[in-house]
Amino acid sequence: MTERQDARPVGVGCDMLKECVTETICETFRADIFIAGSKSAAVDLCREFCLIGLCVSVTEAEYVYTGGMESGVRIGLINYPRFPSCSESILETARRLAKYLIWGMHQSSCTIVSDKVTIFMSRRP
Fold first, then answer.
1. Which 3 state secondary structure label does DSSP give 9?
2. CB neighbours of residue 31 within 10 Å
3. What pLDDT is attached to residue 116?
4. Is residue 109 in some structural domain?
């Protein structure tokens, strides 16, 4: 992780901000959970789950497949430079959140896609 500072542009008023802008850089890693269900249910469950100290994005998605389609969400986790983590920890958190979402949204499956692996999780036999 590295930090960099740049001088603020002349004439830009930012009395409440620092005189410079810092950048914190970390290794890139992301994990996305794809699951069917309503966005409002996903947001509510993510808000509960994130009380552990986590931030996720929730984006609506439409899943089109052979013979049909359904609405759902994409839940995104990233390696956030302010609180960096390792790829294994982010993926493990994504797995725990995915299980929580499957049960909470009354779904039978979901998929986790990371930079290195794709995991299909299912309650089906």
1. coil
2. 26
3. 93
4. yes
Task: Answer whether 0.85 is exceeded by the pTM.
Answer: no
Q: Give CB contacts under 8 A, 24+ apart, made by 67-74.
A: 70/36, 71/36, 71/37, 71/38, 72/34, 72/35, 72/36, 72/37, 73/34, 73/35, 73/37, 73/39, 73/42, 74/32, 74/33, 74/34
Residue 77 lies in a domain: yes
Q: What's 51's domain CATH number?
A: 3.30.70.120
pLDDT digits (tens, 9 = 90+) for 15-71: 566 678 889 999 999 999 999 999 999 999 999 999 988 999 999 999 999 999 999
Structural domain total, the chain = 1
Print the domain residue range for 106.
Answer: 27-122
